[in-house]
Structure prediction request, 185 residues.
Amino acid sequence: MELGPDVYDELIDLLAPLMGTEDERRAWLIYALSGCPALEQINYSGPTRTFIIIMVSRLVNFGRFRGDPALWCLLKTIREHVGEDRQRRIDGLQAILNPPALPEAQVVLDDEQEFAYVQHRIAALKKIVLHKRIEITNLEVDLVIKDYDIQELLDREKDSLQRFEQELAALQQKEHELREKLGIE
Prediction:
């Protein structure tokens, strides 16, 4: 998706008051996109306008996170914490940043293809679970040592970890069933 200068200007106007410092930038992005690999690609320093332009570009290029475009995930979160005027402006960007999805085609996989997909998804989920556990440990350290008020964020991360672990367990069960069905040890 390519954004024109008018969309960038609107995003700068909406986000600049919330992202004046590196700490504010990092806090909003972690709050909205915790666990998103795109956060590792973002440099939080520099002038606010420059930061927002580069951050928006990185999130657009990253694509989807938790089912929505990463940039839209950020704006949805921010929308909950701003006044009605800014909420309407964010709503006005939805058609551009999160257009309705086309109906998905049904794909039928044979058992071997499904097995390969399940193994790939398990490997990916193991990485996500590990990353989430590290993030939770870091947040717990920050909570104790630095006395930050991040309990809500920590609780959200723990809930997210639990969902990923449940999905991982279900896929591991599916993998076991497919191994038996295909006669793979």
Q: What stands out?
A: The chain has two domains: 5-97, 111-182. The longest strand covers residues 64-65. Residues 10 and 95 are 14 Å apart (CA to CA). Residues 111-146 form the longest helix (36 residues).
